[in-house]
Each structure stands twice: as structure tokens, then as C-alpha cells.
Hints:
Strand 5 (148-151) and strand 6 (156-159) form a beta hairpin. The longest helix has 16 residues, at 103-118. The protein has two domains: 2-159, 2-Layer Sandwich (Ribosomal Protein S5, domain 2); 167-286, Alpha-Beta Plaits (2-Layer Sandwich), CATH 3.30.70. Strands 1, 2, 3, 4, 5, 6, 7, 8, 9 and 10 form a ten-stranded mixed β-sheet that branches. Helices cover 31% and strands 29% of the residues. By secondary structure, the chain is of the alpha+beta class. InterPro entries: GHMP_kinase_C_dom, GHMP_kinase_C_sf, GHMP_kinase_N_dom, IspE, Ribosomal_Su5_D2-typ_SF, Ribsml_uS5_D2-typ_fold_subgr.
Amino acid sequence: MIALAAPAKINLYLHIGPVRPDGLHDLASLFVFARDGDVIRVEPAKSLSLTMTGPYAPLLKDLPPEKNLVYRAAQMLAHAAGVEAGAAITLEKNLPVAAGVGGGSADAAAALNALVALWKIDIGEEALIRLAFRLGADVPACLAKAPVNVSGAGERIEQGPSLPPLWITLVNPRVEMPTGPIFRAFDKAYPAPPAPLLANFRAANYQQLKQAMQATRNDLEAFAIEKAPVIREVINRLAAAPGALAARMSGSGATCFALFASPVSASRAARAAQARGHWAMASALYVRLGDV
Length: 292
């Protein structure tokens, strides 16, 4: 059996541009990954199957397998590589659904990596990225766990900056926030936005990190807050937490985050959010290439 983490994906910033001819948005973002999240397990089998466990599995129980990104990733990879073998896949779903932390994308990316190893497929990085992009704009960036600069609609990936040791608190006020309506609200407000630019995100120390966060933004945050005002309250509470370096919403929401230099501070903020009835998780971040 092969088991791989499918870590939570966080947008430290997210700049959105115009809609492309393919219907996707140009974007510029810095993705980072928590050390915790969902888990993918694969083992040999005669046919392809998907089993889901974990606290958020019940939310996906009525979804047909062929509409699950993990199952689709397996089918697509098998077809592309001419693999006839099957696999028993287990998805341990620990992250909230439709939460802006790339749960489905990270799950699909981990499934691809695990099945490449299980089926002993010889596939280059670029070919795997192209296949991953067919599954979703965020999937290619989730193939790696290091900070990555992401542009295009998600298909252009470059090594991101090295960051100082960081811990993150993720908080979701138990609000599902499907991506489509948030992007449509953005499009209505900004029918012709300028091309998004990657930020010069230098963060060799905590002071630089704070400055870099102040100089960037999440263009979707205001539209998610409009649909769920509790998001603003969560961000404000996280920003005021002892030791917080910065706080923001991730992706299209509704999960928000705060960055900390201390695991104790991150855990304290998570417990405070849980006491208010929110889902919350504290975790270390992968902060540089090769971080294990």
C-alpha cells in the first residue's frame, strides 16, 4: 500500500484577471501547503474502486465516483498511460468541502502521485502537469508541496520563495462556498480587470513576510464576505490573535487563515475558533523546496 498526504492548499495571495477564451480566469497567486489535510491510500486491485473515510466523507457519499476528482484522476492517468491494472483507492477526507483550501485538487494530485508509483508509470513532470490541469486549474500546483508561484489559469508553475518557519491556523465557519458564484460576482463587478501580476513576494524573515502580505490581497475575499459576512469576523479574530503575523481568506472561501511564528500560538488560535463552533486546524507549513 502507498499512502500520501493531500495537504491543505492555501493562497497567501490571489490576484484575479480577465476570463480567458477557455472560460477560465487568469490569476496570479502564491500557493503554500500545510503538513496536514486529507490522505490518499492506494493498493493493487483487479479493478478501480474508491472508498471514502474521515469526518467529511459523508458529505461526498452521494457523489457518483465518476464525478469525484480522485476517481477521475485515476481513470485519466490509466487511460493516458495505457494501464490495465486496477487500484483500490481510499480517500480519508479530513478537510471541509467547498472550503477554498484545495481539498479536491490536493486529493486528485496525491492520487496521481500515488498511482504513478503504484503502477510504476514513467511519465515526465510536464506531461503529468498537463494531465493534472485537465482535472482542474489548482491540481498541477498541488503535485508539489513546496511554495509555488502560480499563473495562467493554474498551469504555469514556478518555484516560490523560501519562507521562514511558519505555522498556520485554518478556520472555516462551517460555510460551504462554491467557487462558481464567487467568480461570477467578481466578473460582474470587474468585467474588464487588468492582467494579474505575480507579487515580488520576498519573505526571508517575519518582518518581510508581514510586508509582503500587506502588499498583496485576495481579490475574491470581498465577494465571499458579501455572501457570508461571518468570514469578516473570522479574519478579524484571527488577525487579533496573539502572535498572528497576517490573516486572510484562502481561495474563494470560506476558509480563512492566520500565519504564526510559533506552533503554540497557532494551536491556541485554533482552539479559540473551535470553542466558537468553527472547524479549525493548526499545522506547520512546508516553507521551501525539499522541506520534509
